[in-house]
Amino acid sequence: MPDDPRDKFHVELFTDGACSGNPGPGGWAYILRHHASGAEREDSGGDPATTNNRMELTAVIEGLTALKQPSRVDVYSDSQYVLNGLNEWLDQWKRRDWKTAAKKPVKNEDLWRRLDELRAVHELRYHWIRGHNEHPENERCDAMAVAARDRAAGRA
User: Which end of the chain is more exposed for a tag (fewer CB within 10 A), N or C?
Assistant: First the structure.
């Protein structure tokens, strides 16, 4: 239904994170694809001392932050941590004042709070992709995240 006016602001967001050691140098990457036109934008970045989960979260945050207006976003990730957090855990953490079911502080709370702000702006749908399974956009994001990780580690 390409003539649907809602498609004007419909995008697909493919994300991935990479880390060498956990913690260690890490990288994140995303591809944004405008649903109606097929136009794409991609970006990546790194951190010399981080964790894989922080990079997975950062990839989604950076992709959503790149959007100039509220959008319908299909988020594709190979991270169960990110998708379970968005689908199941985030609202529970907020109700418990950012504590887990075990009453421990939520890890990466700063990033989860930012992601919570962004999900209030955009209409998000979540899709899990099996990592390293020849999914073209996931493979591209992985390659960009690994290159960003290597730059952050001073290896590129």
Answer: N
Buried b (16+ CB within 10 A) or exposed e, 132-154: eeebebbbbbbebbbbbbbbbbe
d(CA 77, CA 92): 21
**Residue 47 is a catalytic residue:** no
Rounded distance between C-alpha atoms, residue 74 and residue 137, angstroms: 13
| Cα–chain center distance at 141 | 11
Catalytic status, residue 45? no
Active-site residue (options: 26, 45, 46, 56)? 56
Statement: the pTM of the whole predicted model exceeds 0.85: yes
The answer to whether residue 16 is catalytic is yes
Q: Is the peptide bond before 23 cis (omega within 30 degrees of 0)?
A: yes
Q: Which residues contact 25 (CB under 8 A, 6 or more apart)?
A: 19, 46, 47, 48, 49, 50, 149, 150, 152, 153
Question: pLDDT in tens for each of the 156 residues of the chain?
Answer: 444 554 558 999 999 999 998 899 999 999 999 988 889 999 999 999 999 999 999 999 999 999 999 999 999 999 999 999 999 999 999 999 999 999 999 999 999 999 999 999 999 999 999 877 788 999 999 999 999 999 999 986
